[in-house]
UniProtKB/TrEMBL annotation, chains A, B, C:
GO molecular function terms attached to this record: hydrolase activity
Coiled coil: none
Domain (AB hydrolase-1) ranges: 7-236
InterPro entries reported in the protein's UniProt record: AB_hydrolase_1, AB_hydrolase_fold, Sec-Metab_Biosynth_Hydrolase
Gene3D superfamilies: alpha/beta hydrolase
A Pfam family matched in the record: Abhydrolase_6
Keywords attached to this entry: Hydrolase
Protein's UniProt keywords contain tRNA processing: no
Transit peptide as UniProt keyword: no
Protein name as catalogued: Alpha/beta hydrolase
Amino acid sequence: MATNTYVLVHGAWHTGAELDATAERLRARGHTVHCPTLAGNRPGDDRARTGLEDAARSLVDDLEQHQLQQVRLVGHSYGGMVISRTADLCPQRLARLVYVNAFVPQPGECLNDLVPPHYTALFDGVAAANGGAVMLPFPIWREAFINDADGALAQQAFDRLNPHPYKTFQDPITLSQPMAACPLPKSYVNCRMDSALPQSLGWHPRLSERLGLFRYIECSGSHEVWFTDPAAIAAAIEQAGRD
Amino acid sequence: MATNTYVLVHGAWHTGAELDATAERLRARGHTVHCPTLAGNRPGDDRARTGLEDAARSLVDDLEQHQLQQVRLVGHSYGGMVISRTADLCPQRLARLVYVNAFVPQPGECLNDLVPPHYTALFDGVAAANGGAVMLPFPIWREAFINDADGALAQQAFDRLNPHPYKTFQDPITLSQPMAACPLPKSYVNCRMDSALPQSLGWHPRLSERLGLFRYIECSGSHEVWFTDPAAIAAAIEQAGRD
Amino acid sequence: MATNTYVLVHGAWHTGAELDATAERLRARGHTVHCPTLAGNRPGDDRARTGLEDAARSLVDDLEQHQLQQVRLVGHSYGGMVISRTADLCPQRLARLVYVNAFVPQPGECLNDLVPPHYTALFDGVAAANGGAVMLPFPIWREAFINDADGALAQQAFDRLNPHPYKTFQDPITLSQPMAACPLPKSYVNCRMDSALPQSLGWHPRLSERLGLFRYIECSGSHEVWFTDPAAIAAAIEQAGRD
């Protein structure tokens, strides 16, 4: 079996550490895996001023610093915004883009353009009250994000989240072309129990089909399958990322 | 693991007895489980005059008689109408509502408002010819309701069904508020092979999203998974019902 | 368990041989299984002139030659066009129609009426340059048709495909009635990772619901599950085909 280089890019409120259990499964299969933490989600980062471009540039820095080549670049949720921009900034390092229930923006869109209005209204209020940092209320996390966990795991995982710089949800993305025109191979992994977005305004096919020709892979589990079933999401990422 | 109290509320044409195999799986996990039979589906009940309010009141009586508290109230199909009304009548006894491919009405709707017109036309004719009781023709049962069974099980299960009081499909429900505004926690279990409603006018997300914030759980199997895979639906109900 | 007679009808670019691995699983369960190759896909067939009616007549010839009765007639993809016409030509030999991610035409439609315009444009060009025979470019095959395979299997399966007579995609079908009115029992098998058609213009429910009352069966895998998981598709076909 071919072994590849994977870079797993976390979503909002997460760091690379939350993807470690999944990375371990991929490493056990012989792959090289990096789980960088994006600018804005590191301890001490300025939550009020870090924007989407900062986050993407920090990912590019990480790829360059480790001199990674032929990378399968995997973005989860908000990470889809970041990998889309990264595909513009350093395509020469990438072999494939893999979106895991991730946002696929059109040029000039921001993340908030892609979520239901009741989320935006909620986030606006939370960020205004917390110096530009947004958190997810526990009931939404527990019911809609990590619906496949038991109560203890839901709480334990929630306790690991960090305040997220809201500016990254508001900044329009700079893309030289729609993702459908991006010549890199692309995959979309859809976890069947993901209800972080309502299904009628959901990940797949609404956002996946913006990729043009792409490889579709299903996985069991919720939006937070990284906590609830790392083996399943690792297997799906391998199916999505291989040549 | 926490153990809870579950009350499983059957759908049209069924009684509590058909949910016993599923209840046994939940009991084996330490839970307390009741499977009452609603007014209208008991031997000798007046199929011509029993309505939705009678069915809901009979469920409330059952909860009160057994002095149940902190109930995870699970409704299947037509049972979704009944648990929705029950949430209005005795919320103080309930910890969570769990809909299993179940109807979620808006205030003033009846079940017939939520099914395709060809079902209503069929039911009208059958009920008119049978003193207000409605039955499902075997071919619809076999192909669209219990599609995952073999022929012998499909027939055996069909033989256990009882004529259903059609008035319960026609009575508009009384609800003090839309279910989305009901403050009880809510879950929706969706069996992936359920085709009792056509998918384009289906259970999820059309009816599930009426719950507002809810926990989404998928299960394998058809509308009649109680007969074809009690272990699977018991596991899904536990995922849906736990805190 | 009842044993039945199955005839598996391949899709475009395939022959009966590619369905053999699946047929073997059904035979191991006691069933009789035929996998004929349709006119137009046999070595030496005239790819420029073979049309849909020729393909259907060749299937009828095969059923008659082997004097098959009570056939569960299974059509995959383009094979759905062929079995729909065959149900009109010799219904007396058939017990049930089983569509496996297959086209369900209305009277007078051709296959090209049922695919996205970008496919038709692509096929037009390829067929014009190849004497009326159409092939699938490898990247589309690999990403959208056999998305669940590894690279080696994707290539190996691609090497077995044969040029397909494009006229069979262009010929309007002759049907005496819409398939919903056809009195034969019908089933639809949907492979959950099938992305040969975009989901927003997909197999199920868009095409399946044209069958009227039908039995819905889900299967894991992609459009080319015959290569990637013959055991899974054989089990689904048995669920779909039994009485």
